[in-house]
Amino acid sequence: MTQLITTREERGEAIAKLSGQIKRIDERTYSVKSQSHNGEYIIRKVDDEWLCECPDNKYRHLICKHIFAVDFSSQLRSEVAVNRVIAEVNVNSCQFCGSNQIVKAGLRKNKNGNIQKYLCRECGHYFTINLGFERMRATPQIITSAMQLYFTGESLRNVQKFLKLQGVTVSHVAILKWIKKYVALMKDYADRITPNVSDTWRADELYVKVRGNLKYLFAIMDDETRFLISQEVAETKEKHDARNLFMMAKRLMEKQPKTLITDGLTSYHVASKEVFDEAQHIRKITLDGKQHNNNKMERLNGELRDREKTMRGLKTNDTEILTGYQLFHNYIRPHEGLDGKTPSEACGIVIEGENKWKTLIQNASKSQDLPNPKGIN
Questions:
Q1: DSSP state, 85?
Q2: How would you label 314-344 residue by residue, b for 16+ Cβ within 10 Å and e otherwise?
Q3: Integer angstrom CA distances of residue 156 from 134, 153, 230, 234
Q4: Percent of the chain's residues with pLDDT above 70
Q5: What is the model's pTM?
Q6: Which of 5, 115, 177, 179 is most buried, judging by how many CB atoms fall within 10 Å of its CB?
């Protein structure tokens, strides 16, 4: 005998488990299909309280099954999120004989810092582990400190001055070479990882100067986790074809959004119809805190604008600096809007270790010879 579902909470749970019943418009707005007719109800969060258009909530002031459905849907999404841990690379075996009978054996002196030496008790060999930083004169700590300073807003020459205070003499050109080398290495690695982004994405554009010429940076960001998915520099705003940007985002995330929020730019509408054919495209956005504001993208644009001012403009369209800032934004920088998490952590990607730059570089170096399942260069 079929058990009857009687309470609103039980009905809400049943709705949440059905496919296609709930659509997330943004973090404070959902739509839930009606179970009695062909329409749908909009559920909005107002002053930390969910409000629904249905009679139970609107007139009787009860927590309706649609609100319960949204709550259960959020819980289910959290439970099925696949976590990926990017672990620190630790020394656990001899690189000559593979034995795990190894011990620390002093430091190798270097004018830019010291590197730990190890002794294998099995074969008697001494060796160092410097994965990702082989043949670099500076230590991993110095290189990653320089990258952290640069992407938090310091100029190359200010980074150079800071390192000099630490007893490390290096030119600003060498620092830029470090950044270019390791950004390229980390990008190849990061492109192989599929974050657990939500079904609502945002797109926007920002004007930038490239060698003194006005151009536009187009970007797509996940609404829930603030993960910066993809970006590209365009020559113009109105005539830019956004299809390549959207296809790149779809390929990297291995999915398309159910809801896309943009301004009224025609290229977004055309690209969305062709690339995100299953998505609801919301083209009316405001900056006043109402339902479809674009404050999150404007906050991201502000971050990039601060970085660009320090550089006094970009040098090339495909500069590694924009890619590096994307990596910094996604994997390194904690965000107050995410309760101190990074966007990657909000997507289920945990980077272990106090020095996340070093962990990323070491893992990227380890994975260089592995096949790329997405075929992205």
A1: E
A2: beeeebbbbbbbbbbbbbbbebeeeeebbbb
A3: 23, 10, 25, 26
A4: 84
A5: 0.75
A6: 179
